[in-house]
Amino acid sequence: MDNQNSDNSRRNFLKKVGLGTAGVALSGGVNAMSAKSYKKIIGANDRIHVAIQGLGRRYGAFIPPIANQSNNVELLYLCDVMDGQLSKAAGKVSEVLENKPVLEKDIRKVLSDKKVDAVFMATPDHWHTPGACMAMEAGKHVYLEKPCSHNPKEGELVVAFQRKYNKVVQMGNQQRSSLKSIEIIKDIHNGIIGNAYKAVAFYTNGRGEVPVPKKAAPPVGLDWDLFQGPSPRKAYEHDTWNYNWHWYGWDFGTAEMGNNATHELDIARWALDVKYPERVDVWSDKLHFANDGWEMYDTMEATFHFSENRIIQWDGKSRNNYNTYGAGRGTIIYGSEGSVFVDRGGYRLYDLKGKLVRDSQSQGNESGMALGGGGDLSTRHSVNFFDAIRGKAELTSPIEQGAISQMLTHYANISSRIGKSFEIDDATGRIYDREAMKLWGREYEPGWEPKL
Q1: Residue 336: is it exposed, middle or buried by C-beta count within 10 angstroms (0-12/13-18/19+)?
Q2: Are 198 and 334 in contact (CB under 8 A)?
């Protein structure tokens, strides 16, 4: 980026050019410029040029804040490894954007363009940290969808890269930008429910059967090599692409922990104002559709023990949609003088006798079990990202905080995989158990491992 003096000079120059151009346009002379051209000139100095990598269920959440002219953002690239998703996204984007972004399958080509300032990354999980590290190394700011890492080692790496390259990295746990969540968490920290000692985070869904994987040719238009990216190469199996990669082993996904628990566990940790736990206990199993292709657990209860006798419990049911808590997802915080239920729609505050004291429901669209993004939480989170790039705001979910919350999901997954509990150094986050530490990182395709 240019230094401050250079920026001021460019602004002054563009201001003069803009005033002169406006005069010509208003006079109606032969050199009158279109409104579109005029806007490009007067906004160019402060414009943020972005790319989106990953055009599945989440990319639509980024389009409204990009399209809003007051944010002064231009979408230069749409990137995805599947032709069909590229063309579909291009069609959707053309309905709301004046410019036509370049369609590209290989993110490395996008990152080589020096005009790109920032990247929204909404790829499968195994791409998140390597992609973010590549982007920072190329001088880009990053909006990194959850999970921010595929394993604990990558959580360390993405934070280390951010510190080295000093880029703005926002984690995509958008409830951190909910005004209602911010309000009630501040109240909790100020003692509105006394000593907050316990949080129960939950997620319930009725996911159905998935196909048993069978070797097949990759779908037409899918670059299977690029899809695998940092992961060691293997033959394609039907139907392990698109959303189903979440459930077929650990090469690409992080199970429901990384997929959804990330959000609620982040709220729980935020509310209790804790960092790393001292111990993790997990009960988990695949308990539904025994003969289908689902390889991960579909049911999990995890308990995270923190210092000062504080505790976070996770109740995740991916394929049993019984409504245990009166909502599909959320977090309940218990205190010595009351309790709070909070989710993406708002919060409810109760006194010690269980009487409702305050009920606040936001007008947000991004709530409940809705998939596909959009709504004002993602918009607000994205605008905060833009403002942080411009130095006008602090990030609501900086990567160093997001990475700590993400560690809770990794601890639970590792405990599930080795079938036992373990203790943790609550100062460093490191696991004491040697068997567990074997899963601290993962294997990479040669040449793809992020290295500082």
Answers
A1: exposed
A2: yes
